[in-house]
Specification:
26% of the residues lie in helices and 32% in strands. The protein has 317 residues and is α+β, with helices and mostly antiparallel strands.
Length: 317
């Protein structure tokens, strides 16, 4: 199938994957000063991201990236599916021989935070500097958690982008209406997690019912981001634009894929989280049960909602 949508590259689907995905939830360990505003929180997160880039530029790729990762980080990796945990992520990055001598730096162009101030996301443009003096343009998406007073990356992905001019200007931040205390109410956290799993499942179910493009339009926010493909220099912004992007030039009406969340990481405030799971190719009509089925492809998607009773909408993927 030519020109598959960005989230569903056939080459990735064909690759063999052995995946063990963590079961994760927020574990608030930091109380917020009452004087911090939502803008203060996102400014702090963006500063942490920029500081990590500055430190990374002074070393090589593996220590540069892993220095900001949590011990239980999740990172999609070629030929592996998910690299789960810090050691596995380091091994996956080390599998690329260029990373031993290359350095990498980046510039965030958007950030967002949860109302409890302990979860957030950033995305932006990245440059890989190879030892021969050449460069490779990249994009990245990171989901952050604040533990023991320090922002760290719990889920991370990067991919190539097409060369070309892109704007480093900051987009408007994704901010809660107010800062609220973190919660350790386990039943409440369980309910938030279950609700986010259900939101991802509803997204997939709608794709089977109304089609892939309409489902992307329905379940995304007006300011949602899709990383786009390697032929795109910039990100795709907005649920409607993403809907057009994932179906452009495709021969299908109904979704050829289904997906589900195997685990989630959520903020105790119930307004920000990330789903982690697998995309699967639907069996073609008339296919035999004995026909080979491509291995599932790993994904993670960041979700946000205006308040704990509002519907979840994907905001970055």
């Amino acid at each position: 199938m030519a020109h598959l949508p960005r989230r569903f590259r056939l080459s990735s689907l064909i690759a063999a994957i052995m995946v063990g995905v963590m079961s994760a939830a927020c574990n608030p360990s930091t109380s917020l000063p009452s004087s911090q505003s939502p803008q203060d929180l996102v400014d702090e997160l963006l500063a942490a991201d920029r500081a990590a880039s500055g430190a990374s530029a002074a070393t090589t790729v593996v220590p540069g990236l892993t220095a900001m990762f949590t011990q239980d980080v999740v990172m999609p990796a070629p030929g592996v599916g998910f690299a789960q945990g810090l050691a596995a992520a380091a091994d996956a990055l080390s599998a690329n021989a260029d990373n031993a001598s290359a350095s990498v730096d980046w510039t965030p162009i958007r950030g967002g935070v949860s109302a409890d101030g302990l979860h957030g996301f950033t995305f932006g443009f990245m440059t890989l500097h190879l030892s021969d003096g050449s460069t490779t343009p990249l994009k990245y998406l990171a989901y952050w958690v604040k533990r023991d007073g320090r922002w760290q990356v719990a889920a991370y992905k990067r991919r190539r982008r097409a060369p070309g001019d892109v704007s480093p200007a900051l987009m408007a931040a994704a901010l809660p209406a107010q800062v609220v205390p973190a919660s350790t109410d386990r039943p409440a956290l369980d309910a938030i997690e279950q609700g986010l799993v259900a939101a991802e499942q509803g997204f997939s179910d709608d794709a089977q019912r109304i089609g892939l493009g309409p489902a992307f339009a329905k379940h995304g926010s007006a300011d949602a981001m899709n990383m786009g493909g390697p032929d795109d220099a910039a990100f795709v912004i907005g649920a409607d634009a993403i809907s057009r992007s994932v179906t452009e030039g495709q021969p299908f009406d109904a979704s050829p894929f289904n997906w589900s969340a195997e685990s989630v990481i959520v903020a105790s405030s119930g307004d920000l989280g990330v789903t982690i799971g697998y995309i699967r190719l639907n069996q073609a009509p008339g296919a035999s049960a004995e026909d080979p089925v491509p291995e599932p492809f790993p994904f993670f998607t960041i979700w946000r909602r205006e308040n704990p009773t509002a519907p979840w909408r994907y905001v970055a993927e």
